[in-house]
Amino acid sequence: MMKRLVRSVLADKLTILREPGRPDIGLVGPVRLPVQLDDREIMFQWYAWLKIEKSMLQKEDLLAVLPQMNLASYQQSSVLVYGDFANAEQTLVRMHSICHTGDIFGSKRCDCGFQLRRSMSMMVNNGSGALFYLADHEGRGIGLFAKSLTYVLQEEGYDTVEANVALGFSDDHRSYDEAIRVLRYLRPKPVTLITNNPKKLQSLQEQGLSTNDHYPIWGKPSKYNRRYLATKIAKSGHLPPGIQMQSLDHGS
Question: What CATH superfamily is the domain 4-68+75-235?
């Protein structure tokens, strides 16, 4: 049985987010996370969250059943926060889809790893921001195994959209519902979104994101990712580098 002191310490860092008609979300944080960002050592505040299938579970009950939940069999999402995110007049948010190959291995078949690190630098330079790292977004929501199959098809000449469709998926399976609920808990004020994709901005706003501006973010083209970047523009609605989308202000 968990000792009372341990339970008390953990409960202080655990919040249960509840909304009628939606699964509860267990949010842990903030946890101090020192990060080596290029030549700088930056202190971020880290949060992780978990969708709770059983409704109205209390903090102590959740902590007690953790060993039976087999959480290592699937990943959980998290958010990296810098500065006074809740109160800053202007702050940045990046909704970053996990990319095992790009973020971890540094693959040049995409620009995800560059966007991840660049977003963190932009937040530090801005003075505040939050990078949401969305674990169920691999391959635009189809998962790592299916993504590996799309890579096989891409080597046969399919582009990224064609490969997803050939496997029976739509171009984009991602949902931002949980991330937006966590964002609203961390900051009720509008944010500036880091994205090249007007469809993504519109989708987030339709799901409740309060935003007052955006910043584009493009990696450098190479012989490995040139077609990938071109497909983003031609088929997924991304704006070309140097083109600014019109700001969609839905207020606070």
Answer: GTP cyclohydrolase II (3.40.50.10990)
